[in-house]
Amino acid sequence: MSNFWTVVGFTARNKMRTKSFIVTTLIISLIISIGVNLPFIIDRFSGDGAGDGPTVIGYVEGQAPQVTGPLGAYYERLGDDADLQLAAFADEQALRDAIAEGAIRGYLTFEGQGGTFPEVTYKAESLGGGATASLMPALQTIRNDLILEESGLTAEQRAALIEPVALNTTQISTETGAETEGGETGPSGLALGFVYVTIILLFMGIFITSQLIATEVTAEKSSRVMEILVTSVAPLTQMFGKIFGMFLVGTMQIATFVLVVIVNASLPHNQEMLSGFNINLSELDPMMYVYAIIFYFGGYFLYATLFAAVGSIVSRTEELAQALTPVTILSMAGFYIGIFGMSAPGSTLIKVASFIPFFTPFAMFLRVGLTEPAAWEIALGIGILLASIFVFGWLSAKIYRTGVLMYGKRPSWKEIRKAMKAYKI
Fold first, then answer.
1. What integer is the mean pLDDT of 127-140?
2. 108: which strand partners?
3. 3-state secondary structure string, 127-165?
4. Pair 312, 403: CB distance under 8 Å
5. pLDDT exceeding 90 applies to what percent of the chain?
6. CA gap 382, 378 in Å, rounded
7. In this structure, are strands 106-111 and 119-124 parallel, antiparallel, or unpaired?
8. Alpha-carbon distances, residue 191 vs 175, 195, 367 (angstroms)
9. Roughly what angle, to the nearest 10 degrees, separates helices 235-265 and 375-403?
């Protein structure tokens, strides 16, 4: 047992000290930080005056007053939340001069003013910045108001006609009869986001860390270090020591990324934005966290044993990517099933995949988070996953003990079986 923990400690320390690991962690953390703060960065450097007040849009004074008047009032009612502001100018040349001076972002022109609503054109040097996205709903509202005013309806009838329909959502369980009310920011929406993030973290933990195991085993074989290691530590102890050591490294790396997200999300400019989503993690079922840990552990150890076995039969790192292709495809298939299955978590495909051990960590967790699978289904899925870890762990251990002693071209399965008999494994 002492040798096992020695291998675990050596593997973890050796990997965390490498420049590639440190640089990769820092680069990914930087990318995550930029991603979390991207809305704020765009807002500060978009060059349209954002951050210093609303964007100013001009128009010719006296042109289409039935539109410009209500449009100005529309943004005035928004107060501090308004992202646009209107300004009147004498003519179109004055508007162009104002754009050149940076006084306004763009301006509106109107044609066919004899009708109920004229044809509106937005002119600017750059059509980015979100001005058109803000103008479209505002102009649509004004157009609807003008049409309704000519319809002869009373103010109350007009208000009732344009009032949005409230559609409440309730998630039910046909087994327990429980009902959970929630909208886009309620428990169901929160569960959707939690499942999405967890599946991504699960894939990162499985794919990235397991790849590191295979790479390290192959590198030790190609450099002939493995010949020295097998004389002091049993191959089986090496394999599981490396798997557990890399598990600690991968978990620490993912924890670092999560911490980076939390720190960046806690910044004042991001807190103000997130407050509108009304996110409260206490609304999640505590069992969601338990299942996330179970499927993370199960998925990692299942794939880690396979990656270690494949890495042991490859003598050169150049051949590793090709040898890992089948296992890589399995892990990516599970990830895509989990991600794209979020739109239909109760489909037959997801139900069947949740009982296939290679896909269980993704598909069953998806069902647990977004549907109400029966308790026996969850227990069966976890049971199959654990049994598969034991079976593939046993098989991978036999392959590993044989593979680390075989050099040259990648052996076939027939050659591996012969070697197992020769070594009495």
1. 80
2. 59, 122
3. CCCCHHHHHHHHHHHHHHHHHHHHCCCCHHHHHHHHCCC
4. yes
5. 11
6. 6
7. antiparallel
8. 20, 6, 11
9. 130
> Alpha-carbon distance 96 to 190, whole Å?
47
Q: What is the dihedral of CA 133, 135, 137, 143, to 10 degrees?
A: -150
| Whole-angstrom distance, CA of residue 242 vs CA of residue 261 | 29
In the DSSP assignment, the letter for residue 18 is S
Q: What are phi and psi of 313, to 5 degrees?
A: -95, 0
Contact 213, 205 (CB under 8 A): no
Between β-strands 84-89 and 55-60, what pairing exists: parallel, antiparallel or unpaired? Answer: parallel
CA 69, CA 411: separation in Å to the nearest integer? Answer: 80
Tell me the torsion sign for CA atoms 400, 405, 409, 412.
negative
Tell me 276's DSSP state.
Answer: G
Q: What pLDDT does 227 receive?
A: 56
Instruction: Quickly count: other Cβ atoms within 10 Å of residue 370's Cβ.
Output: 22
Q: Give φ, ψ of 108 to 5 degrees.
A: -110, 140
Structure tokens at 109: 């022109």
pLDDT recorded at residue 185: 39
Q: Which residue's structure tokens are 């109400």?
A: 372
pTM: predicted TM-score of the whole model, two decimal places: 0.66
Residue appearing with tokens 């050591």: 245
Segment 15-59, tens digit of pLDDT: 888 888 889 889 989 998 888 888 777 766 655 444 456 888 888
Contact 111, 118 (CB under 8 A): yes
pLDDT at 157 over 50: yes
Whether the CB-CB separation of 85 and 75 falls below 8 Å is answered with: yes
Neighbours of 43 (CB within 10 A): 15
Residue 279 in tokens: 């996110």
